[in-house]
Amino acid sequence: MVVGNSTFVIAGQEVRPGCNKTVELQIPELYTHTPMVMPVHVVHGKKPGPVVFISGALHGDELTGTAVIRRLMQNKLLGQIRGTLLLVPIVNMYGFIHQSRYLPDRRDLNRCFPGSESGSLAARLAKLFMDEIVSLSSHGIDLHSGAIHRTNLPQIRANLEHPESRDMAMAFGAPVVLHSGLRDGSLRQAVDELGIPVILYEAGEALRLDEYSLRTGVKGIIEVLRSLSVIAPSRRRSIKAKNSFVALSSSWLRSQNSGMVFLTVALGDYVEDGETLGEIVDPLSERSTPIVSHQAGIVIGRSQIPLTNEGDALVHVAEAQAGIVAEELADLVSPLSSDGDIFP
Ligand SMILES: [Zn+2]
Fold first, then answer.
1. CA-based radius of gyration for the chain
2. CA–centroid distance, residue 56 to ligand 1 (Å)
3. How far is the CA of 6 from the centre of ligand 1 (A)?
4. Is the link from the previous residue into 39 a cis peptide, with omega within 30 of 0?
5. Sign of the torsion angle spanned by Cα atoms 125, 131, 136, 138
6. CB 65 within 8 A of CB 144
7. Alpha-carbon gap, residue 201 to 56, rounded angstroms
8. Which of 4, 72, 289, 336 is the most buried (most CB within 10 A)?
9. Distance (Å, rounded) from C-alpha 321 to C-alpha 329?
10. Distance from residue 115's CA to the centre of ligand 1 (Å)
11. Measured distance CA(252)–CA(105) in Å, rounded
């Protein structure tokens, strides 16, 4: 006999098995007397299973996640899930209104986790998210875009030393999976430290939407939900899941001098160590400086603005020296995963 799911309680509201509900978390009002809420769309399955939060727009100008969640909500597969989805399309509502990455006090919400009740606005929002969303969740997927004037190849970032996070990262099937164990006050780090498996999806550019990033995002989330048995396996599955290029590190190539930038590399290009990736020119003279790669790898991010000051980040390269494709990773990590530390 299959046991049915129990009623899900979030922010004091009940969601019955097999039902959807949009719950509004109260957040501090604007100084205009305007009330503010953080909406959470709850999809609660008839059968028990994982509770997965999916968050977008922690950075208020990163619209990819909001659009991916919206498209996901319209997918028929969500009508028959096991477990529960907590969909939060706009976490930083204040930044979203102002088309800004930050909160009104210029704080970066994704550097203020796990937050506190008595701290800054960012700290209070972070604490609310941890208490109302993360504390109910068994898994998490956080959705981002590149910063303003920067675009990212669709990629997953995760702590690959956490076996369940690694499994989610590989199930997603993004072109690149980047190991990231940074201690940076991010939501991902705060969730990871609780032992909850979590991955971060990065794709596209702030304040822009592109179809490739949206499709890769929706498809990837569905594959992750399949891997967690939240969504049933596909009956029409004949094509093998795509391999991701796995990189254990990445670095930004910075401009050696100021000027106008002409980049000749695109997202997803493989570049060699010593390869010329474009040039920086002086607008008034013949001076031109080549932009030379200092490592081999795949271009996972690039500046979109053709102007640079010396030291600005131009091209983000996932390193090939340490990079391995997923098939090799499976061989490499499976025997080692029980040791808990796959990276020497
Ligand atoms: Zn972001």
1. 21
2. 9
3. 34
4. no
5. positive
6. yes
7. 10
8. 72
9. 14
10. 17
11. 28
User: Would you put residue 11 in left (φ > 0), alpha (ψ -120 to 50) or beta?
Assistant: left
- Domains of the chain in sequence order: 15-227 (3.40.630.10), 251-324 (2.40.50.100)
**Residue keyed to tokens 């569905």:** 222
CA dihedral in degrees (273, 276, 282, 285; nearest 10)? 130
Q: For the residues of 14-26, what is the DSSP string, one character each?
A: EE-TTEEEEEEEE
**Strand 47-56 to strand 139-144: parallel, antiparallel, or no bridges (unpaired)?**
parallel
Closest C-alpha among 180, 165, 190, 11 to residue 111:
190
153, 299 contact by CB (below 8 A): yes
CA of 58 to the centre of ligand 1 (A): 6
**CB-based contacts of 74: which residues, under 8 Å, 6+ apart?**
none
Parallel, antiparallel, or unpaired for β 139-144 and 176-179? unpaired
User: In this structure, what token pair is assigned to residue 330?
Assistant: 């499976």
Among 199, 193, 204, CA closest to 130: 193
Tokens of 223: 């594959």
Distance 101 CA to ligand 1 centre (A): 8
The alpha carbon of 235 and the centre of ligand 1 are apart by a number of angstroms equal to 35
- Judging by beta carbons within 10 Å of its beta carbon (0-12, 13-18, 19+), is residue 339 exposed, middle or buried? exposed
